[in-house]
């Protein structure tokens, strides 16, 4: 635990390191209750700085055994040691430094550095975990060539892995020694080690230049039948990165290891990716389609980091979005290519609008390139990742696919093997395309979500449409008076026949066409606080379709009648905006549904019935068009958040849809039910998504629907259908039936941790079943484990983020339960504790009584002893 008031680190204070570490040779002796780490470093003074001759190495929770400089033992009086560092002085230009430390992987519950998960050893070093292994310059701009020796009991560790290529293996009595060498210089955060009793599946990939690469996935023996899909996704990712970015893999072997106890999804360690088992393991009986898609995306994401992150890395952690935003953009394009591009866009916009806009409007709001932080672990956020990806996506839109590729080629060529900044990325884009993107860089510096207000005026006589856009970005902590951003507005004007009209804009301020309009992408460049654009030869008053494809991460204020929205829902040639129009319509209904008698307008029923019967449309797209906005999405579109009113309004509209369209849902369900054996193909997945949505509505409205759900629950041979049926039964409010099925489900699946996690969250995230006693029981259940982040997320994460109306129960007991968990986890796993806190930071948006109760719990956490820097930062910012 760090001291009570950890300090703030500023981007403006960045300085290069005093020394470079050219070579790092590590020896791990894995013993029963501890591990001895010997680190030999080849140090070279950084000549670009005034030589000071002293070196401060980062280190935490380490037992220092010895320090040897150029073969001479250094006495304790000759170095300084504290809880965070080891400092040596009087140094020369070059040295060989050897440091021996002892660490305790068994006792490491924070899951940073070297720890044990089940029977295996594994590491997590990003961002600052390496300093829990040995004293080091634990910063991403220090890139070193690593050689790693692992010595461990042979019997319990038949597998011993590290980065790079395996160069040596020998048996030393009952021990085995394995050596790995990684020729690519890398920062310490990309170091990895794994040892244990694992089984391996192997495949091959031949790169575009004909080199053969060995691919291996290591899992615990019990999961041996769950590796095929990840291997397949890996090969598709490798091919895609060659085809779309010209990037080839650069080692002879690429390994993935599945680990049960892991703080996040996965980690891109060079040549040795480590995955949370939930993000890599799947077979049809245990994993849902959603899990398959998540695996495909995360395998790709971690693989793509090999170039965007590893070969070219970040100079400092303020540049985190350099690798994360770019890599999320890359994995999103990959998923869009593998599945439906429109559906992927809808999913991403949903995350932006529910989670990122909330972060951007709350106490933890920060720019894509933050100026400061207390604890870097708190900055692995939706702003850095998803908003960062949106910003890269806007560059792609502005430059076009070819221009963007020229820019990325130049970026990789210019900076290969370097640790660079976000501006180096933007400069490569500028230089390759000869454009000035300085205005665009405001997206990296200014936090907050711009709000765009739209007004338009059509003149029949002049056949002109004038469109006025205003932008305003609200204040965020530490930032006021924001400057206008460069906002790409992809648009269409739709005639009464549903067809797009030809668009030819002019600037009312006399700007040239090339400065305001990209013909190829139909993008209007909006760059001032307020601008008017004139469209001529518009023969009839068109329907406005703005921000097609979610072309910028902004909020739009535009008044359109329900009739216009229905027209767009039916006719827009842009699938994303069809969905968006439907969501806006549903939001209007949810707000206006005063009682249980609420009914859908007849005209809307006809439109939805038409969608359900339309066999030409992508079924997954239809499923999204008929899905109500989630409660958190609705909350983000509300001035003051009243979770109970939101829940009630949404439930009324859901029932109204279920009742009005029950025959159509039944027919759709029957049409899409098939006897084909389960396959995780896009074709099957899209059909299942609509089939199961239809089942959900149908089972709300009728006994036949409920029976169909029960039947599907009993009869299905795959987890997608079984879980969808279980969720429909839980949602139906038939408690006895739901509980009986939940019991059966647990009996069937209690041996499989990943399935049990789904079972935990199906209950904890349900408002229908929700009582705090149930959450308490789940926390005490034999399947629950406070050391396992997946279990914590499945119960407490689902409870606080999904079951809103009972998390926000009036007396504050839901908040208290979460705060108790945060305080408990603060002592064992600060990263997870801090993540769980997010729902408690939203008190300012709530109705006053709820807000007061929530703030009280934050104050209680703030006053509890020994706060980690992770929890300290979030709590103090939320209360500020
Ligand atoms: N880079 C890792 C995240 C590390 C999180 C450290 N707290 C996974 C990823 O984004 O690919
Ligand atoms: Zn990443």
Ligands (ions, cofactors included): (3S)-3,7-diaminoheptanoic acid, zinc ion
Mean model confidence by pLDDT: 97
Count helical runs: 27
Percentage of residues in helical conformation: 40-55%
Rg over alpha carbons: 28 Å
Number of separate strands: 34
Largest sheet: 8 strands, mixed
Strand content: 15-25%
Strand numbers in spatial order across the main sheet: 6-5-9-3-2-12-15-14
Intertermini distance: 23 Å
SS-based class: alpha+beta
Q: What characteristic shape results from the CA principal axes? A: globular
Uncertain runs: none
Characterise this structure:
- With 880 residues, the protein is of the alpha+beta class.
- Helix content is 41%, strand content 21%.
- Helix 3 (320-338) runs antiparallel to helix 4 and helix 26 (848-863) runs antiparallel to helix 27.
- It starts with 8 loop residues before the first strand and ends with a helix.
- Bound molecules: (3S)-3,7-diaminoheptanoic acid and zinc ion (ZN).
Q: Which features characterize this protein?
A:
880 residues; alpha+beta; eight-stranded mixed beta sheet; five-stranded mixed beta sheet; 27 helices; 34 strands; binds (3S)-3,7-diaminoheptanoic acid; binds zinc ion
């Amino acid at each position: 635990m760090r001291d009570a008031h950890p300090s703030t680190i500023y981007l403006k204070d960045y300085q290069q390191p005093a020394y470079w570490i050219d070579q790092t040779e590590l020896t791990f002796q894995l013993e029963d209750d501890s591990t001895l780490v010997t680190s030999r470093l080849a140090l070279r003074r950084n000549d670009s700085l005034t030589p000071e001759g002293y070196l401060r190495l980062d280190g935490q929770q380490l037992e220092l055994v010895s320090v040897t400089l150029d073969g001479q033992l250094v006495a304790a009086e000759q170095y300084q040691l504290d809880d965070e560092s080891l400092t040596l002085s009087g140094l020369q230009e070059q040295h060989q430094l050897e440091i021996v430390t002892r660490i305790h992987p068994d006792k490491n519950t924070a899951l940073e550095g070297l720890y044990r998960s089940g029977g295996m050893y594994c590491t997590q070093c990003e961002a600052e975990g390496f300093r829990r292994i040995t004293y080091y310059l634990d910063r991403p701009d220090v890139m070193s060539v690593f050689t790693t020796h692992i010595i461990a009991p042979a019997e319990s560790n038949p597998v011993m892995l590290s980065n790079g290529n395996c160069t040596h293996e020998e048996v030393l009595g009952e021990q085995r020694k394995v050596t790995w060498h990684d020729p690519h210089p890398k920062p310490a955060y990309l170091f990895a080690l794994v040892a244990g009793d694992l089984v391996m599946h192997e495949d091959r990939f031949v790169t575009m230049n004909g080199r053969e690469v060995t691919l291996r996935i290591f899992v615990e023996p019990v999961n041996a039948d769950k590796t095929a899909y990840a291997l397949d996704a890996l090969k598709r990712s490798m091919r895609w990165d060659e085809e779309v970015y010209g990037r080839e893999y650069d080692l002879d072997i690429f390994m993935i290891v599945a680990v049960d106890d892991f703080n996040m999804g996965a980690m891109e360690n060079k040549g040795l990716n480590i995955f949370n088992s939930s993000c890599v393991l799947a077979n049809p009986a245990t994993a849902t389609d959603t899990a398959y898609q998540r695996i495909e995306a995360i395998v790709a994401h971690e693989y793509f980091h090999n170039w965007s992150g590893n070969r070219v890395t970040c100079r400092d952690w303020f540049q985190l979005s350099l690798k994360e935003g770019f890599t999320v953009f890359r994995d999103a394009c990959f998923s869009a290519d593998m599945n439906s591009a429109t559906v992927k866009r809808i999913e991403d916009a949903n995350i932006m609008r529910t989670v990122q806009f909330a972060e951007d409007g709350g106490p933890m709001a920060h720019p894509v390139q933050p100026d400061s932080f207390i604890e870097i672990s708190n900055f692995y956020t939706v702003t850095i990742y998803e908003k960062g990806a949106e910003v890269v996506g806007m560059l792609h839109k502005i430059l076009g696919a070819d221009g963007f590729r020229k820019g990325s080629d130049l970026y990789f060529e210019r900076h290969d093997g370097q640790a660079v900044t976000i501006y180096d990325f933007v400069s490569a884009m500028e230089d390759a395309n000869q454009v000035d993107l300085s205005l665009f860089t405001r997206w990296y510096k200014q936090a907050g979500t711009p709000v765009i207000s739209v007004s338009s005026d059509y003149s029949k006589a002049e056949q002109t449409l004038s469109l006025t856009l205003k932008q305003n970005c609200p204040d965020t902590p530490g930032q006021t008076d924001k400057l206008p951003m460069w906002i790409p507005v992809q648009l269409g004007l739709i005639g009464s026949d549903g067809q797009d009209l030809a668009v030819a804009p002019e600037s009312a301020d006399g700007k040239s066409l090339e400065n305001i309009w990209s013909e190829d992408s139909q993008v209007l460049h909006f760059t001032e606080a307020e601008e008017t654009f004139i469209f001529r030869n518009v023969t009839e008053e068109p329907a406005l379709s703005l921000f097609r494809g979610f072309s910028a991460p902004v909020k739009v204020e535009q008044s359109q009648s329900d009739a216009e929205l229905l027209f767009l829902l039916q006719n827009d040639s842009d699938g994303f905006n069809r969905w968006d129009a439907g969501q806006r319509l549903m939001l209007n209904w949810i707000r206006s549904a005063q009682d249980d008698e609420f009914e859908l307008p007849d005209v809307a029923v006809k439109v939805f019935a038409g969608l359900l019967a339309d066999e030409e449309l992508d079924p997954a797209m239809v499923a999204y068009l008929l899905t109500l906005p989630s409660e958190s999405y609705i909350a983000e579109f509300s001035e003051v958040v009243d979770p109970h009113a939101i829940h009630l309004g949404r439930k009324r509209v859901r029932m109204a849809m279920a009742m009005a369209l029950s025959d159509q849902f039944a027919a759709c369900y029957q049409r899409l039910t098939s006897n084909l054996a389960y396959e995780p193909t896009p074709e099957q997945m899209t059909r299942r998504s609509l089939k199961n949505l239809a089942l959900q509505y149908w089972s709300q409205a009728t006994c036949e629907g409920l029976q169909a759900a029960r039947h599907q629950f009993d009869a299905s041979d795959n987890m997608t259908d079984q879980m969808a049926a279980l969720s429909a039964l839980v949602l139906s409010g038939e408690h006895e039936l739901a509980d009986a099925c939940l019991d059966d489900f647990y009996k069937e699946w209690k041996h499989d941790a990943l399935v049990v996690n789904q079972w935990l969250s199906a209950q904890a995230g349900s408002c229908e079943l929700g009582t705090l006693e149930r959450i308490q029981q789940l926390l005490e259940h034999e399947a629950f484990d406070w050391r396992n982040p997946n279990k914590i997320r499945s119960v407490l994460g689902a409870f606080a983020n999904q079951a809103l109306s009972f998390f926000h129960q009036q007396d504050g007991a839901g908040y208290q339960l979460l705060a108790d968990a945060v305080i408990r986890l603060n002592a064992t796993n600060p990263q997870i504790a801090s993540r769980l806190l997010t729902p408690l930071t939203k008190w300012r948006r709530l109705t006053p009584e709820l807000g007061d109760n929530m703030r009280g719990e934050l104050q209680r956490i703030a006053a509890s002893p020994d706060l980690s820097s992770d929890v300290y930062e979030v709590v103090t910012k939320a209360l500020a």
